[in-house]
Amino acid sequence: xxxxxxxxxxxxxxxxxxxxxxxxxxxxxxxxxxxxxxxxxxxxxxxxxxxxxxxxxxxxxxxxxxxxxxxxxxxxxxxxxxxxxxxxxxxxxxxxxxxxxxxxxxxxxxxxxxxxxxxxxxxxxxxxxxxxxxxxxxxxxxxxxxxxxxxxxxxxxxxxxxxxxxxxxxxxxxxxxxxxxxxxxxxxxxxxxxxxxxxxxxxxxxxxxxxxxxxxxxxxxxxxxxxxxxxxxxxxxxxxxxxxxxxxxxxxxxxxxxxxxxxxxxxxxxxxxxxxxxxxxxxxxxxxxxxxxxxxxxxxxxxxxxxxxxxxxxxxxxxxxxxxxxxxxxxxxxxxxxxxxxxxxxxxxxxxxxxxxxxxxxxxxxxxxxxxxxxxxxxxxxxxxxxxxxxxxxxxxxxxxxxxxxxxxxxxxxxxxxxxxxxxxxxxxxxxxxxxxxxxxxxxxxxxxxxxxxxxxxxxxxxxxxxxxxxxxxxxxxxxxxxxxxxxxxxxxxxxxxxxxxxxxxxxxxxxxxxxxxxxxxxxxxxxxxxxxxxxxxxxxxxxxxxxxxxxxxxxxxxxxxxxxxxxxxxxxxxxxxxxxxxxxxxxxxxxxxxxxxxxxxxxxxxxxxxxxxxxxxxxxxxxxxxxxxxxxxxxxxxxxxxx
Length: 644
What we know:
Elements: H1 17-40, H2 45-72, H3 76-97, H4 100-107, H5 116-132, H6 138-164, E1 168-171, H7 181-185, E2 195-198, H8 201-210, H9 214-224, H10 231-249, H11 255-260, H12 268-300, H13 309-323, H14 328-331, H15 337-352, E3 354-359, E4 369-375, E5 378-386, E6 398-403, E7 413-417, H16 427-445, H17 466-472, H18 478-481, H19 495-506, H20 509-526, H21 534-545, H22 562-565, H23 572-584, H24 595-606, H25 614-622, H26 629-636
Parallel strand pairs: 5-7
Antiparallel strand pairs: 1-2, 3-4, 4-5, 6-7
């Protein structure tokens, strides 16, 4: 097979990843440096953009493997080497963005002679040079270079501390009361008769949901929200200061203005306005549902005057069980991991016309499954599913690039990195799997671009989540779930149970929105104003925006990994949700397997990648600009639970 249709050949878990990583990165970095020399030494104007594309393909190949392996490889030495490669690529990318000769070569390109894609690429590229500071004096450019390198190092250390700080709480058997039997069996007692519960996601969320002992829940909650503290406190202080300095050197009022300029929202001030708008629109249902939780808590603790996050997940589960007749432990018996994974592939294959052929491909861990993806029989990419926790692995759920797809040159390859249990899954885990798989589909389906800048999930950052939030909807429809959600006897999940689960899920959407706005305010405000005591600032923001009070002894910001990747723009989850609810209005809720709309969506929204502005893609799909109406209607539909 030629290089166009051949995915990367990766080492196996026991092979020399050191040699492979070093070769992959050094070859690509050398190619990028060679390309820069060609560009600066007088590449013909007609070829300048192609040379620039080659440079950025080479850089993207380094960033992809380095970013992935720094988060997932079982060997800490390989993770460290990948981080070092990522820093080297970042340094070269910074040097490129601050190189006046490279800028001049591209500025000389005649935009009027270009097609639409190339003209868009040129316009965005020249904008990026200016945002990097290429037009500043020598001293300022050098200072910006040092700031950018330090930002990269701090960001990597911030993420590493979150990834590596796994805390353990040892509990008695009585403190595990209420938890499912398979959970207890997976956490056997040690020689002292104690059970070790970690701060990894598969341990924490079932515990907070089901454990009946409040002190044990509180210990787990505090441990979970103390990860990477105090180490990340100091790192974050320095990182925030550097970002503020970075923005100031470029002439922006603060980092939020710099960051928002290239997003759909347009300005930092608009982020604050958006947060306040969502707080206002969700307030009534948020307070109503929060008060339901508090009343349920008072049945167990008559003196309670408030309810916080250490108790909220548990009492939300009780309300759903008692008022909506939904027991999450009964629901989860229909969601065996292997069947869910197979069902996800079947559903998305049918919807979008793609095929998944499992292949015996080597990878960084024996748990990883690989699939070649085809569209109408043509190979269009490869995906890797790395879905269970292990030591040293990324602690959240995300899609990582392995290769950015370039038409005629390299197939897109993406990796889904999650931390799901190996047996029965919570339905919330199923929703998360569908969500993250939406990113993976976007990466592969948009991987046939000529320009690497537009390949894959490369839209404006505040649109990135919308396609994934849309795909979540297929995890909520009974006719979809019944194709793969069966119990141990092979009986599919009852339609009535799915309907009850959806109603129970919709309970609390208002207060969850307020919590999301708390997170968004942390992301925004930490970058908008000087901060002394980070924990105190987080406490103040939680009091202002969340309906659940601060829990003493916690340091949420230290393990809020999105402060590294989203910086000031965590609002984007809710901005994208507004758009995704509007996109959903184009689908037939009574026939979610109807393929005509799904494939039009595939071709209109997903396949173009970043080749057009997100607002234009949405307008073409909907036949009108997106608006707030569908989102507001969805929020207003929050159900009122029956009296208990």
